[in-house]
Each structure stands twice: as structure tokens, then as C-alpha cells.
Amino acid sequence: MARFRHPVRLDRHLLRPRLPVHPHPARDDDFRDRGTGRRGRCFMSLHGVIAAFADPDALTEAARTMRDKGYRRMDAFSPFEVRGLAAILGMRKTRLPWAVLAGGIAGAVLVYALILYSVEIDYPVNVGGRPLHSWTPFTVIAFEVGILGAALAGFAGMLWANGLPQYYHPVFNAKTFTYARGGKFYLLIEAADPKYRKGVTKGQLTRLGAETVEEVEA
Of 52, 125, 155, 195, which has the maximum CB count within 10 A? Predict the structure, then answer.
């Protein structure tokens, strides 16, 4: 067998702290090379301003006042439903009941048609001289599947209407926004609103009794 050289002689190039090998330059505006510092903070845009209120009445009154002043790009966050707040924010009436109805009808009709096809066309069986189309037991199964279809349609429609799943929202950047902080009620004024003025809007929310007013980055 050949005799190998002493391995100590092989590490002379590896003892150098730096090798003359440079990273490839970035070929795209969205990437940076190794020697470039972090970028992107200067591109952060303002999403709006969020104000925290102590109770639902203060939130409702603030939303009504801001709407009377001409603001339309608003949103609210609360630990529970606040009656009348959706109308003040200009939210449209939900169409979720129609989705539930359509899901229930579709489920019942499809399963009834499947049963009818199975017992009359695909595999007809004469059991005691009974008619193949025995609608009485078929109706029970169609009703059960109709309820299941309505539930699934309602669940899927709820997710779609609320834009879920949503893993990121600019409001999460606000340090004061948390439902664990005493159950506060929040009103968000978006910067995209034509009436939005940075200092003016914050002052208006402060005069309406907001405990905290904070800018939200996008």
C-alpha cells in the first residue's frame, strides 16, 4: 500500500483567516451581496394610525365622529361584537346565509341523485317487490348530507369573507395592539383615506378620548 504523507502539510491553505474569494454581486434589486448591509427600512410605508379606547361606547362614538368628518377607510378591533359598529364603518351586509343555503341544497340534491342512480341504473336490486325508487329512506340521507353541505359551505364562506387564513396584518406592527392588554377597543384610520393627515388625524383621535394613538407601518 502507498504511504500517505503527513496530514499536517495539507492544512497550510486552511489556516488563513480570509480567502481571496468574493461573493457574486447581486443580479436583482431584491437581493444584496454579502458585503452590503441590511436595506429596506427606508421603504417602509405608513399603513395608518390606530387608537385604543377603554370601552365599546367610546369606540362607537369615535368611529361615528370620524365618519362624520369624512373618513371612510376605517376598521375596528374589539374583544367582542359591538352592536351598531359595523353600520358606522360602512360594512356591507353579509351574503353568508346565501352560501349556506346553496351548500345545503347542493349537498341534498347531489346525494339524492347519487342514490337514485345507484339503485335504479347502476345496480338495481328487487327486494321483496318494493319499488326501486323508495323516496322515503332516500330523503333522510339527503337531509343529513344537506346539513353537512350547509355547514361546510358556511365554514368556507366565513374564511373567504374574512380573508382567512391571513398570516400577516399591518396592525400587528403596533406595539399597543394586543387583546391581552386589558381588553381594549381599537379604531384604525388608514393612510389611504383621502381625509388622512398625519398630525391632524392623530390629534382628532386624541381629543376623542383615545388612551393611546400610534402610527402603524405597512
Answer: 52
